[in-house]
Specification:
The protein has 445 residues and is an alpha/beta fold. 51% of the residues lie in helices and 9% in strands. A five-stranded parallel sheet has the order 5-6-7-4-8, sandwiched between helices. It has a three-stranded mixed sheet with strand order 1-2-3. It is globular, with a radius of gyration of 26 Å.
């Protein structure tokens, strides 16, 4: 990995832990230059230099040896011009400040245009309930599910509902990546952490999207942990989304993941046929798509099953294709377009012709196993790895939900499938597993 002085210093603080991140002397240091032999930082005084050398020099040099080279050591220069007292931002909002707040909300995502069905009914109900009673029974609210199923829509809907009811409420929507980047900026730019913390810890409603990206980010996890505690203590509402349930988030501190389960955890699943058709009809109404035959909508709802995002994208694509060709949007045109573009329209790499049975037979043959071994309850080492590969391929090359795949492999719930796929994804960094997956995928093509 290529480091800049700033990025190396930030990772250094992350590696050394909370004591280093909050140390008054390390916080005064400015990274200057980096090469194979030296990492030079500047500090405002001789006293600061002595404190860093006495308390952290050995640990920092150990990190440099691992990250840069065994010859690289820390050098500290003194720059008196750095001895500037920072201007601290207030920790509480100014009641006389009439500046409009930046919420990050998309006004187009509201409860009224969220189509409800069996797969998302609970999520919708709890999201609406949370918007009506901030900090109440559903605090925190944790919504999880696959890509493009409406999690982000619900987050914005909660925020918009609260804003409409009371514009004075302080609402903030961000992704976990934005939270992390702003946290890093507050450290690297030597700005007061009070401004960053005031922004997040005084909000009435904090909406965090894709919380799973906090995994392996130890420093950011620590900051979010403290933010979470402060908001919860004040009975301020926290709503998060993730692609998996809290107990399936690896490389996340247990004390943090356990807090995600304090309130309500709700799963949003793939839409069934009836819901997909309702979503298409809603999309036609919202976009002003008139005169689209019902048989075309029925066909799209039957073929495109991956997620809502692809479902709506398919409708727009077909409408645009018909307009460009100056043709009517008929069932024949829909079939032609969908058959010509299977990877972008029908759910990425998933193919209707590939079944779990085909995958199981292929994997069993490759590893010289019996077909029944992959669906058995046996957990010997010789079976676990091939079984996980088969589960991974089913997720990638069929249109089945994780729950359906679990049933195919005689597992009680989807968590086993999620775990298996995560294990294979990690192993894909190794040549052996990568070659096996590539070979089996080619066989399925």
């Amino acid at each position: 990995m290529q480091y800049t002085p700033d990025s190396l210093w930030f990772e250094m603080l992350e590696t050394l832990g909370e004591t280093a991140r909050n140390d008054i002397y390390l916080c005064q240091a400015i990274p200057r230059t980096l090469n194979d032999e030296a990492f030079i930082i500047a500090v405002p005084s001789d006293y600061t230099q002595d404190e860093i050398e006495n308390r952290f020099l050995s640990d920092i040099n150990n990190v440099l040896a691992k990250r840069i080279s065994s010859d690289c050591t820390l050098e500290i220069s003194v720059d008196p011009s750095l001895a500037v007292v920072p201007e601290f931002e207030q920790t509480e909002p100014n009641p006389e400040d009439n500046t409009p707040q930046t919420t990050g909300l998309n006004p187009n995502y509201i409860f009224d245009n969220f189509v409800v069905g069996r797969s998302n009914r609970i999520c919708h109900a709890t999201a609406y309930a949370a918007s009506q009673d901030l900090g109440g029974e559903y605090n925190p609210l944790f919504i999880y599910g696959g890509v493009g199923l409406g999690k982000t829509h619900l987050l914005h809907a909660i925020g918009n509902c609260v804003q409409e009811a009371d514009p004075k409420r302080k609402v903030l929507y961000v992704t976990s990546e934005t939270f992390m980047n702003e946290y890093i900026d507050s450290i690297m730019n030597r700005t007061s952490s009070q401004g960053f913390r005031s922004k997040y810890r005084t909000t009435d409603l904090l909406l965090i999207d894709d919380i799973q990206f906090l995994q392996r980010k130890e420093g950011t996890q620590e900051e979010f942990f403290n933010t979470f505690n402060e908001l919860y203590k004040r009975s301020n509402q926290i709503v998060m989304t993730s692609d998996r349930s809290p107990d399936m988030l690896e490389n996340l501190e247990e004390r943090l993941s356990s807090r995600f389960e304090w309130g309500m955890v709700a799963e949003i699943d793939k839409p069934n046929y009836e819901l997909r058709l309702s979503i298409l009809r809603q999309k036609c109404e919202d976009q002003g798509f008139s005169n689209i035959p019902s048989e075309v909508l029925n066909y799209i709802a039957e073929i495109v099953t991956a997620n809502i995002r692809q479902l709506e994208g398919t409708l727009v694509t077909l409408k645009a294709r018909a307009s460009l060709l100056d043709e009517e949007l008929t069932i024949d045109l829909a079939r032609s377009v969908l058959n010509d573009t299977p990877t972008t329209i029908t759910g990425g790499s998933r193919k209707k012709s590939v079944t779990p049975e085909v995958i199981q037979e292929l994997v069993a043959t490759h590893f010289q196993l019996n077909n029944g071994d992959l669906t058995s309850a046996k957990r010997t080492k010789v079976l676990v790895y091939p079984r996980q590969i088969a589960m991974y391929l089913c997720r990638e090359h069929t249109q089945l939900s994780l729950t359906d795949i679990a049933e195919v492999f005689n597992r009680q719930n989807h968590r086993t499938i999620t775990y298996a796929c995560e294990q294979i994804e990690k192993l894909l960094e190794e040549d052996e597993t990568k070659k096996i997956i590539q070979h089996l995928t080619a066989e399925l093509a």
